[in-house]
Design brief:
mainly beta; 735 residues; Ferric Hydroxamate Uptake Protein, Chain A, domain 1; Maltoporin, Chain A; transmembrane; receptor; siderophore uptake transmembrane transporter activity; 2 domains; five-stranded mixed sheet
Length: 735
């Protein structure tokens, strides 16, 4: 049974991640308002710290930037929010991005394709987990093995899930303990988040390895103003009972934001009926449900030592216990009899980062020094007994990883001649994979070091032609050296509201330590790393046009992208003859086996029909193929459409509705041809969600939401049901 346990556990991880089984830092600087020509001072945080507005004498926060309305700036924008116009009648809010150039700049002025999700959007739509909010964004496909807590992968522009780099407050948080080094968003809740920036296209020129398809940059909300505590209680379907509480504010030079949360889900059944019939499931197995218990803490602290020097500290802690009964457990019904064999997955994750920020020469030179640490501890085991009375897996498997990061970057403000950015980073990564099973001992320990340097120039000509170009050099102790680059111009056609954007760049995805060095052996099987793996490489470009009409109340646009990948890393398997065995030993490993091409279109439309009514929709068309075999890549639906509307019919009352449609895709089957990578067909689906928020008074708010209103029964991925119709409600106390 240990062989099946290992093989199926590995298959589950690889299947969901899409692998084949064959502030901190910006400047307190003076800038010129592009529309009014007036000079103003602004500050923003990049990578998780903050700056202080000398002009206003108040603490500024992440993504702060000047209003582009030609009016004076009264106060900095709150953390992680889009910059709103000073009057509701002025149209849609301006969007400021930090991740695109590592400094605050209007999204209109960068050639890269970027989406900024604000704290208000997350709260209005009542999305409590990161996968739920990312699933609605253009260019992304989110795959989750079951309900809340299940292994979750994020596919961007048709690339593999491990080609997306995820950062929180400047710290890289892709999971080194996983086989693919992909970020698992399954246990990541949205409490404490100030903004999420989604930067699409090859971004290795600024962000290095694993930013081949793009970057998701998460910024923690920063406290300011008076002491503001809150408590939120929520309950509903699938045994949901969630609590969140915290406080934010500032006192003198010190500012803080602390959020603690506990989320519980119990009773969600994830196995489709056709798989139960195929496996001959008994009554107990048909009623078995998943249970998830998540405790998280999100902390952001800062201290302004002087008017131009500040310190910052951010931390996110996750402790989760996820108990599941999956299709893979049900496969062994003949072995288990009436017994329920449940998987137990425990995760303990900590991400901590400290920053020191100094602005010199009246804001002309701005620099940030950062030190970050991440550790991830995962334990997998099983409870229950087999039909013969033997206990299931009593000896846990452990997957551990650590990452230490030291980084520095500085920005030189050349005024009308643009800005120059230079930076350097050093990473040390390590993993430890082991099991306590005395009959099949497993122990793999490995580490690697990466040192990188990068530079970027950014400027504009007459506020018509904007552009940025960067280059980066990465030196790794295991897989060699890589040079990457990116160029991204944007043209504002005068007096038309038309913006033409384009970008081109290169990226690479490094083989994980697991893929390089894993060494597991058992009776009749083995898993071996491949120390000769090369990094995957990509060349990609995109071009698009955006249009503003009706005094900026209507915006729409479309982007065409095309990416080509070489040296795809995929898992492989072969049979090695063994003495005394009629079947031989199954050997699992990894190799660079092919090429792929991903191209498509991303389109959007935002319309502020009334001061109290707005609409937003986006559409993504994706075509992703292995160009060697001409096979479709798994888990890449060709079409995705999302429509959202927000309406405030009366003061303090807000309604929001969302429709998400995803077309079919090719996938791994859980019944039938188990060795075929794409012979299963995932069926398309659409869901309708509704939310309502009402602020009774300054202290009490009540809310309710209905998810999957039409009770669509759908799988994503194949073999894993997603939650059906569900209702939730609760209240929030503020002071």
């Amino acid at each position: 049974m240990s062989f099946f346990r290992c093989a199926l556990t590995t298959s589950t991880i690889l299947a969901v991640t899409g692998l084949s089984v064959t502030g901190a830092q910006a400047a307190a600087s003076s800038a010129t308002n592009a529309r009014s020509g007036k000079s103003f001072t602004h500050k923003a945080a990049i990578s998780g710290s903050h700056l202080k507005s000398r002009a206003a004498g108040r603490v500024a926060t992440d993504n702060t930037a000047p209003a582009m309305s030609g009016q004076s700036v009264a106060a900095p924008a709150p953390t992680g929010r889009t910059l709103v116009s000073l009057s509701p009648s002025q149209g849609l809010p301006e969007v400021v991005t930090v991740s695109a150039l590592r400094r605050p700049i209007r999204a209109d002025d960068v050639g890269s394709s970027v989406t900024v999700v604000t704290e208000e959007q997350i709260a209005t739509q009542q999305r409590r987990t990161l996968p739920d909010i990312l699933a609605r964004q253009p260019g992304l496909n989110v795959v989750r093995s079951g309900g809340f807590g299940g292994t979750t992968s994020i596919f961007m522009r048709g690339a593999n899930a491990n080609d997306v780099k995820v950062r929180i407050d400047g710290m890289d948080i892709n999971d080194g303990s996983s086989a693919s080094n992909a970020f698992d968003a399954g246990q990541f809740v949205t409490d404490g988040i100030g903004s999420i920036e989604i930067l699409r296209g090859p971004q290795s020129g600024l962000y290095g390895a694993d930013a081949m398809a793009g970057v998701i940059d998460i910024n923690t909300k920063q406290g300011q103003g008076r002491f503001k505590p809150f408590v939120r209680i929520e309950g509903g379907s699938y045994g949901t009972f969630n609590q969140a509480f915290g406080a934010s504010g500032s006192s003198g030079r010190f500012h803080y934001n602390v959020v603690l949360s506990h989320y519980r889900m119990d009773g969600f059944h994830e196995i489709p009926r056709y798989i139960e019939r195929y496996n001959g499931a008994n009554r107990a197995q048909r009623r078995a449900g998943d249970r998830n218990d998540n405790r998280s803490a999100n902390v952001k602290l800062g201290y302004d030592v002087t008017h131009n020097f500040d310190l910052g500290l951010t931390a996110r802690l996750i402790q989760a216990n996820y108990h599941t009964f999956t299709s893979y457990d049900q496969v062994f019904t003949p072995y288990n009899g009436d017994q329920l064999i449940r998987d137990q997955n425990t995760q303990n994750e900590a991400v901590v980062r400290g920053t020191a920020h100094l602005s010199s020469f009246d804001g002309r030179f701005d620099q940030v020094l950062g030190l970050g640490y991440m550790t991830n501890r995962r334990r997998y085991m099983q409870d229950g007994r087999y039909a013969d009375g033997d206990p299931a897996m009593t000896d846990p498997d452990y997957y551990r990883s650590t990452r230490l990061k030291v980084d520095w970057h500085g920005t030189v403000d050349l005024r009308k001649f643009g800005t120059v950015l230079v930076g350097a980073e050093h990473f040390h990564d390590s993993i430890n994979v082991s099991t306590d099973d005395p009959t099949e001992p497993v122990h793999t320990t490995a580490g690697m070091d990466t040192t990188a340097g990068y530079g970027q120039y950014e400027g504009n000509w007459n506020h018509i032609l904007y552009g940025a170009a960067n280059v980066r050099y990465d030196a790794n102790s295991r897989y060699g050296n890589h040079v990457t680059w990116r160029v991204a111009p944007a043209i504002h056609v005068p007096n038309t509201g038309t913006i033409i954007k384009a970008s081109a760049g290169s990226g690479f995805h490094a083989p994980s330590l697991y893929q390089l060095f894993v060494n597991q052996r058992g009776a009749g099987w083995a898993e071996e790393g491949n120390a000769n793996l090369k990094a995957e490489t990509m060349i990609g470009y995109d071009v698009g046009v955006e249009q503003k009409l009706l005094h900026d109340k209507l915006r729409f646009g479309a982007t065409w992208y095309d990416n080509k990948v070489r040296n795809l890393i995929q898992s492989s398997a072969y049979v090695m003859p063994a003495a005394g065995s009629a079947w031989g030993d199954y050997i699992y490993s990894f190799g660079n086996v092919g090429h792929a091409r991903m191209y498509g279109v991303e389109a959007f439309l935002d319309w502020k029909a009334l001061d109290t009514l707005s609409f937003a929709l986006n559409y993504t068309w994706t075509h992703a193929r292995d160009t060697d075999s001409d096979a479709l890549l798994q888990r890449r639906p060709q079409h995705k459409f999302n429509f959202n509307t927000t309406w405030s019919p009366v003061k303090d009352f807000t309604l929001s509705g969302n429709i998400l449609y995803t077309s079919g895709w090719r996938d791994y089957p859980l019944v039938g041809e188990n060795f075929c990578a794409t012979c299963a067909k995932g069926h398309g689906y659409f869901t309708i969600d509704l939310t309502a928020n009402y602020k009774i008074n300054r202290y009490i708010s009540v809310f309710a939401r209905a998810d999957n209103l039409l009770n669509r029964q759908y799988e994503n991925p194949v073999g894993y049901l997603q939650p059906g119709r569900a209702g939730y409600g609760g209240f929030t106390l503020n002071y």
